Amino acid sequence: MNGSGSVFKSAAQAVRATMTTPAYGLDPETIVDAPQCSASGEFCFLCAFEPDARADGDAWQSIVDLIHTLVAAKREIPAIVRTVVSVYDHSVRPSLVYTHPDTGATVERPRWTASSVRRHLLFSEQFPNLFGGVVTCMLHSIIVRYNASMIDSTTGAPIEETRRAFVDTIKALQRWESRK
Q1: How far is CA 85 from the centre of its chain?
Q2: What would the mean pLDDT of 57-72 be, rounded to a whole number?
Q3: Where on the phi/psi map is residue 3: left (φ > 0), alpha (ψ -120 to 50), or beta?
Q4: How far apart are CA 54 and CA 65, in angstroms?
Q5: Sequence spans of domains, the chain
Q6: For the whole model, what pTM was predicted?
Q7: Which long-range contacts (CB under 8 A, 24 or more apart) does 33-38 make?
């Protein structure tokens, strides 16, 4: 604290603090614009119906097994999300009743959106093998994009800034892959 009782060293620091949010929300009472399910305010079947806490463990385990199978098959995130939403909508949702833990409201056939499924897959740590594949795909995408714009069409010479970024990204991919 400074002499005025504030934890901020300057007015600028105080203003900056009011203009920021956490990268990852840790306060269960505050919904922030952070990536995890608990910060979204959106229904997540896998969070809401963990088998030890709810009666719908068979459906929960079936969805988890499906995701593990798709991850093991190295399916891309959009394909996994589409498949999970489809299976949930056809096999689980029609008979599901959810009681919101904060409001106590009963919701019949709650919608589990594609964005909520994707959020759970990427940020829950329930599927740790999935995120590594996502990073690999991102690096591949960057490399392909750099390659597509690396040569000056007039001179035929490499654009040095792009070439350098291309090589740096290949090195980053090699480091990423060597972690295994």
Answers
A1: 16
A2: 90
A3: alpha
A4: 18
A5: 1-34, 35-126, 133-178
A6: 0.72
A7: 35/119, 35/122, 35/123, 36/119, 36/123, 36/124, 37/116, 37/119, 37/120, 37/123, 37/124
Q: Which three-class secondary structure state does DSSP give residue 155?
A: coil
Which among 126, 122, 138 has a CA at the least distance from the CA of 177? Answer: 138
pLDDT for the residue numbered 2: 46
Grouping H, G, I as helix, E, B as strand and the rest as coil, residue 106 is strand
> Tens of pLDDT along 124-152?
888 988 888 888 999 999 999 999 999 99
- 159: part of which helix (H) or strand (E)? none
Mean pLDDT (whole number) for 34-58? 74
Arithmetic mean of pLDDT, 93-98: 92
Determine the Cα–Cα distance for residues 87 and 109; give it in Å rounded to an integer: 13
The single residue listed with the structure tokens 């620091």 is 13
What is the structure's pLDDT at 30? 59
How many Cβ atoms are within 10 Å of 67's Cβ, its own excluded? 23
